[in-house]
Amino acid sequence: MIFMKKRILTGDRPTGPLHLGHYVGSVLNRVKLQHEYDTFIIIADVQALTTNFEHPEKLKADVYNVALDNLACGIDPNISTIFIQSMIPEIAELTIYYSMFVSINLLSHNPTIKTEAKQYGFEHRKTYGFLGYPVSQAADITFCRANLVPVGSDQLPHIELTRRIVRRFNKLYEPVLVEPEALISNVPRLMGLDGNAKMSKSLGNCIYLSDSPKAVAESISKAITDPARIHATDPGHPDICNIFSYQKVFNPKFVVELKENCTKGTIGCVTCKKTLTVIINELLEPIRTRRAELEKDMKTVDDIIASGTKRAKIEAEKTMELVRKAIKIDYSFQ
Ligand code: TRP
Question: From atom 5 of ligand 1, which residue's Cα is the shortest distance away?
């Protein structure tokens, strides 16, 4: 028997370029694991419409942004499959079948849906598509029979729902679906520059992977620190400082020293922010360089997306044959 690698499916909504939250929450894991797992990366353009249905004209540019960011971070198109959600109609079909047995009650208790509804200001006017997008995400994951889903911790309720859907489907019909597991990174939730909520494009509190060194410096210089600290010599409280939470993630070698100096008041916020800026710019420099190279050759990027989507489509067709047979929608009339 041929040894088959286990599969990963993960991905992003094309609502803008990717930011540091995406990087530490999921992208870094997918880049590391792509050698070990057969990796599928979905550019979830239909899911992006849940909050952008009034502005579909922005989708295409952001599909490119997300593809470029993944490639610039080190996703190797020779071993990983990057594809577009809307170009796999089987995902929409699977979503409909799942939606027959997922209760609205269950969906409306999803904590991520609640948080996002608040964030986007549509708590009292949730659309059917928004409330149901976790069902569609279950279809994203299961159409290619993924075993592992590297994501940030906010996505856990969706993976839990996917697991429930798989168990229910397999029990109701035939055991044809694979139950996936979530893989949460060790930095599951990066706070935004405002320190109030997770880093998120819609909150405007991000450092983007494609930001220039100057933009990174400006964003960090404006970020919130310990609000009780007014003068550089005041003793600081690193445990409540947002910038210190970034130092822990991006500058782990120096955290002990920084913490001590901050607490004693021997390092000011400006200096601390400057060290962080240098570290983040060092991290982003090779990513920026690769992105700039790729941007010069968009034909290659198109080819990568086209061939990834072709491969995903083959997997979708295989799964749908089993699914349709299991739910008895496999008649033919000739
Ligand atoms: N919901 C994810 C996000 O907002 C994007 C996504 C869509 C996804 N489909 C997925 C993530 C499937 C993992 C698996 O970032």
Answer: 12
